[in-house]
């Protein structure tokens, strides 16, 4: 897992101005640990700072998953939650586990940070069977173009050009 984390961090280092480093005594930091599941406790720095946990437990051993969770840690939201998502994908709410429907809430455009075109291939986009009540049978969403297959982050190699641009815009990278 350590090598995957290093490789994921390297994608951010090579393509953006984000620089992760080993913590010494910084009050605000990302704590990566082997928890239960793959998640980040918040999207971006918490209001009052402090520790932000990123869990990379069993089942998280994919470069795309690690890049995705680090994306949350630095402030990237799910692509499929963008306010313009219904122009690009169809979400089948009846096919989604009711306990996970919140993963498909649309972001309020008044508070949304969006500087790039919608990208179904974003590392921050879930796959077409994400949280389906019948995985591989009932799709939770699909692309409206009829040809793009929505892949899970674990099936992706990492950051896309639009992901990179979004990070650069979010952090005013030069």
UniProtKB/TrEMBL annotation:
Cofactor or coenzyme needed: Zn(2+)
Catalytic residue list: 69
Keywords for this protein: Disulfide bond, Hydrolase, Metal-binding, Metalloprotease, Protease, Zinc
E.C. code: 3.4.24.-
Keyword Protease: yes
GO biological process, one term: proteolysis
Domain Peptidase M12A: 1-174
Record text on cofactor binding: Binds 1 zinc ion per subunit.
Cysteine disulfide links: 38-60
Function in brief: Zinc metalloprotease. Provoques deadhesion of endothelial cells from cell cultures, and also degradation of fibronectin, fibrinogen and gelatin in vitro. Its role in the venom is not fully understood but it might act as a spreading factor that facilitates diffusion of other venom toxins. Alternatively, it might be involved in the proteolytic processing of other venom toxins or it might play a role in extra-oral digestion of prey.
Subunit structure: Monomer.
The protein's name: Metalloendopeptidase
Organism: Argiope bruennichi (Wasp spider)
